[in-house]
Amino acid sequence: MSAAMDTESTYSGYSHYSGHSKKAHRQGRDRHKSPRSKDGSRSEKSVTIQTPPAEPLLGNDASRAEEGQDDNWGETTTAITGTSEHSISQEDIARISKDLEDSVGLDCKRYLGLTVAAVLGLLVFLTPIAFILLPQILWRDDLEPCGTVCEGLFISVAFKLLILLIGTWALFFRQPKADLPRVFVFRALLLVLIFLFVFSYWLFYGVRILDSKDTNYQGIVQYAVSLVDALLFIHYLAIVLLELRQLQPVFTVKVVRSTDGESRYYSLGHLSIQRAALVVLENYYRDFTVYNPALLTASKSRAAKHMAGLKVYNVDGPGNNASGQSRAMIAAAARRRDSSHNELYYEEADHERRVKKRRARLVVAVEEAFTHIKRLQAEEQQKAPGEMMDPREAAQAIFPSMARALQKYLRTTRQQQYHSMESILQHLSFCITNNMTPKAFLERYLNPGPTLQYDRDRWFSKQWTLVSEETVTSGLQDGVVFVLKCLDFSLVVNVKKIPFIKLSEEFIDPKSHKFVLRLQSETSV
Q: Where would you find the membrane-spanning parts of this chain (predicted)?
């Protein structure tokens, strides 16, 4: 009953732009009376609770009854209702609590690392200043006078600390892009190296300067300058290890999406497995087309329909067992296998014909709608102030003329779940504002774009799981395979090392390019 109310409210939100009869409304409402959710049994690791979308989707219109068989895929669309059909066991509750504890542990680990790095960085910058100020505070009267060279060292320390501060801010103080399962090895080694280095300087300073109360103030300042110089060299080492080392391409990785087989190739340098996984995910959201599970239901429904058409008759009476029926169904399916490719061929050809037909209707409808809009110049805006509209109002005015054609095309290409009516109006007003053509407006809908193009709430997966036989902190090697899993699909990554290429040189003398004309009796020369 809740699903029917959701479908009815969806239709009422969209009926302002596409007027359909009440009969079609009742047919669409009965058709979506009891949908089943698919997300309840997809993942054994985590449970994600997702709220219903705020805007009605274009694919929930009740005009499916007029479209025939090509729109029947919408009957399997998941509807989110307020009543749950799945029960939660004690194991599920324990798994949810474990996931919450893991998330809290990740947050604590991240903030602990930031706190340690901030405290250590503050200690590094205050140490040279403390080396210079402590003698002035403790035994000022016993110090030797600071000459011109000593005062010049003050300026050197000040500018070197400023350069070190800017370099540290540019290299380390960045917004974290992800929570990795393990620590970054090189970053941890640098923190340990800096701690040992500053500790050794403090130890030497306490034994040789504080205890003896050294009166050579220029030597103390020179000691502080040497500390700042060493810190600058450590910063250069950090740039080499954290930034420059991974720039040289060493490996080629092939990323394959497990559901539809879409693949991409990327070149990576010397990275650990967890950082390589992070690079793969960043490129996935940019290069891969958005994951559309509706495109995968066609083959499943075709196979189910193929098996549903088989009937088994028990001619030997009720005493025959079920294994004979199974063998009979398998044999019948094998006999019909030769004709199944013809069904697939004609089904795909018919689908392509419908897509081309509705694409042409959509292009014509959008071009006609854009002809009703004219951008007013500055002098024209003063003549007819009552007829002017802002881009949002203009988009709402021309949208009804293209809404039906766009809706049918999105349903046919299984894209309606990624385009809400509000997002289409925003895109239309954006195109009108920037004086874009109808072809530029249709580019988003005619050509499925990358994942980042769509609304973040419809594709973003908050949790990825890295599965690898090797430790995730180890470097990439030739033949390493790891998997990135999310709730709906997984990315299989295969690592191959770029082969060593040997080039040889061969010199060709320019004077050796001589030719002779060979004449025959049959030629016309």
A: 111-133, 153-172, 184-204, 224-244
What does the angle CA 212 – CA 216 – CA 219 come to, to the nearest 5 degrees?
105
User: Which residues 6+ apart lie within 8 Å of 489 measured at CB?
Assistant: 257, 258, 259, 291
pLDDT greater than 60 at residue 25: no
What mean pLDDT is predicted for residues 302-314? 53
CB hemisphere CA count around 358 (13 angstroms): 23
Higher pLDDT, 104 or 280: 280
Report how far residue 459's alpha carbon sits from residue 281's, in angstroms, rounded to the nearest whole number.
13
pLDDT per position as a tens digit, 58-111: 444 433 333 433 443 333 333 333 333 344 444 444 444 445 444 445 556 667
User: Could you tell me if 465 and 45 are in contact, meaning their C-beta atoms sit under 8 angstroms apart?
Assistant: yes
Mean per-residue pLDDT of the chain? 74
> Which region, left, alpha or beta, applies to residue 248 given φ > 0 means left and ψ of -120 to 50 means alpha?
beta
In this prediction, residue 34 carries a pLDDT of 40
| Residue (of 399, 395, 401) closest to 365 by Cα position | 401
Q: Angle, nearest 10°, between helix axes 2-14 and 22-31?
A: 140
Helix axis angle for 337-370 and 391-412, nearest 10°, is 170
Question: How far is residue 457's CA from residue 459's CA, in Å, rounded to a whole number?
Answer: 6
Write out the H or E segment, with its range, that includes residue 166: helix 148-172
String of b and e for 483-500 (b: at least 16 CB within 10 Å)? ebbbbebbbbbebeeeee
In eight-state DSSP terms, residue 255 is: E
Q: For the segment 432-456, what is each residue's pLDDT rounded down to a tens digit? A: 989 888 999 998 888 877 877 776 6
Residue 460: what pLDDT?
Answer: 65
- Within 10 Å of residue 8's Cβ, how many Cβ atoms? 17
Burial class (CB in 10 A: 0-12, 13-18, 19+), 76: middle
Helix (DSSP H) and strand (DSSP E) numbers for the chain? 14, 5
- How many CA atoms within 13 Å lie on the side-chain side of 461? 21
Angle at 345 between CA 341 and CA 349, to 5 degrees: 170
Query: What distance separates the 2 farthest-apart alpha carbons in the chain?
Result: 116
